Amino acid sequence: xxxxxFDTATSFGAVCAVSPRKERRATGRAGDVLELxxxxxxxxxxxxxIVVGRGPGSFTSIRIGLAVARSxxxxxxxxxxxxxxxxxxxxxxxxxxxxxxxxxxxGPRVCAPEELEAAGRVLVxxxxxxxxxxxxxxGAEVPPDDxxxxxxxxxxxxxxxxxxxxxxxxxxxxxxxxxxxxxx
Length: 184
What we know:
alpha/beta; Nucleotidyltransferase, domain 5; three-stranded antiparallel β-sheet
């Protein structure tokens, strides 16, 4: 099955891949995900499914990814599946930058870097890089900043995706409540 997979939730921007017959990859800004798809997909009619990272991560970036997945699904008539962005990492425990001096971690949960049980673990992701000093002081190992283990792997999203179906059924995984509140 030819599957387009992408994630836009982390500070690394969009990561895309097409699998399995023509495994190709590209990386760019979250807002450039359609350009990346265009560069990777020679013939859109060959796509049979889409997998999208549904977070946790940046609210806006998650929404970009889901909107692109829904638009492509509608235009191409293909099913969509979602997977947690945390499931797109290999080589260690994923720790994503949640801003506000917090990180997203498996569970999924959000916490201060100091609250994460890090001793003896290899931590990967943009949160591991940002809070390297805190994690290493608490006994964790964080690979060098330029190590590819810090980027989500869209092909792991495919391996860990939920069931394929209508795009509107893929729900974002925000983990914490949004800052925006309805006006009183």
